[in-house]
Amino acid sequence: MFKSPFTSSTSKPGQGKITLSILSPCTPVLSELCYQYPLKLVAPDPVPPRSLSQSGSNTLNINGKKESHSSSVGSAHDPHPPPLVHTIFLLTYGGGIVAGDTVDLHIRLSPDTRLNLLTQGSTKIFKTPDPLLISHQHMEVDLHPGAALLYLPDPVQPFRESAFVQKNVVRFVGYGDDGGYNLCICDWVSGGRGARGENWDFWSYESRNEIWGVPSSTPDDEKAGKKKRLLLRDNLLLHPSVLPAHQSQPYTIYATLILHGPLFSPLANHFLDEFTLLPRLGSRNWDSDQIPPELSVKEKRRKERQEKEKRDGLIWSAAKVRDGFTLVKLACPGEAGVESARSWLKDMILEEGSVVESFGERGVMCL
Fold first, then answer.
1. pLDDT value of position 66
2. Which of 46, 50, 249, 332 has CA atoms 20 to 30 A from the CA of 21?
3. 331: pLDDT confidence band, cut at 50, 70 and 90?
4. Helix (H, G, I), strand (E, B) or coil at 306
5. Could you give phi then psi for residue 207, rounded to 5 degrees?
6. How many helices (H) and strands (E) does the chain have?
């Protein structure tokens, strides 16, 4: 009987693992990257954040090519950026998840590491022969103090008669310490393939996001008896028994953006400020003869965006909730609703600018 010289794998189909660590003195490295079919992970070379690449100088190396020497000076909201930001694409063979498949991804980000997690296209959920044969995607993230995760994927696209359950669990390890935990997750779903007449025709769709504060495994935390604490839970349940398909119309996409931490506080404040400045009843005194002042460039851009929101029928809200989290909710109708929502979110992020500065342009590739 043939015996393989290689050790047998302990991972199961659909499992994946990503670990970012710090190589002395301060270089982030991808220390572990593994996956099993139907999951596939692609990791291009890491690049420095824009705040470093812009402040560095270029010299020629021995091969005659330009070599960048970055300074350690960052920006006001990001004073000490790491020298490299890693990017990983989350893919599935065939471009989607087949009925009954399970994707299980575990991510560990060591202190002061940063990760852009992206997709190569919309995550397609294929038709299932039985509503009880459900596809699953589960992601667990251990975020240590000073680490940052930017997860701006393409929208999930459930096909007609599909069933899907998604759960994202993020743990702030050592929560309560002085270190900041930086998190940006966009969770959005479309009504299906509009070109084929699909409009919320799947069997069921569930998406759950949970963020926990958990104690570290140090003796001090164990001695103090610290326990994990639920910081935020956000659920979206689209099921005939909960929300009939016709009640989801005319909107063709729903989105939730979760923001937390000092790296994303400028973006969170930008959403909150812009939401406060949305036109409201009674905001203008029509009895006054005073001529309105000339609009600044920023005010003109805001007015143009608000007019486009009205034309597209896009509605959104932003609110600051407990433990420093900011939630942005978004919905858009029509055949072009997905692209309108994608364009709107990208414009808001680029207008504020801090995300691209801290994570590079790769972070918004899916928008």
1. 42
2. 50
3. very high
4. helix
5. -135, 125
6. 7, 20
Position 293 scores a pLDDT of: 74
Structural domain that includes position 164:
18-55+77-278+296-364
**Any domain includes 44:** yes
Side-chain half-sphere of 346: how many Cα atoms within 13 Å?
15
Angle at 209 between CA 348 and CA 142, to 5 degrees: 95
pLDDT-based confidence at residue 178 (cuts at 50, 70, 90): low
With respect to residue 2, please indicate whether it lies within any of the assigned structural domains: no
Coarse DSSP helix, strand, coil percentages of the chain, rounded to the nearest 5 percent: 20, 40, 40
The span from the CA of 155 to the CA of 191, in Å, is 10
In this prediction, residues 168-197 reach a mean pLDDT of 90
Helix 297-312 with 337-352: angle, nearest 10 deg: 160
CA–CA dist 18, 243 (Å, integer)? 36
- Is 0.85 topped by the overall pTM? yes
Digit-coded pLDDT (tens) for 6-64: 666 667 889 999 999 999 888 999 999 999 999 999 999 999 987 665 544 343 333 43
Is the separation of the CB atoms in 256 and 236 below 8 Å?
yes
Residue 343 lies in a domain: yes
Rounded Cα distance, 56 and 53, in Å: 5
Q: What's the domain count of the chain?
A: 1
Q: Is residue 107 part of a domain?
A: yes
Bridge partner list, 157: 124
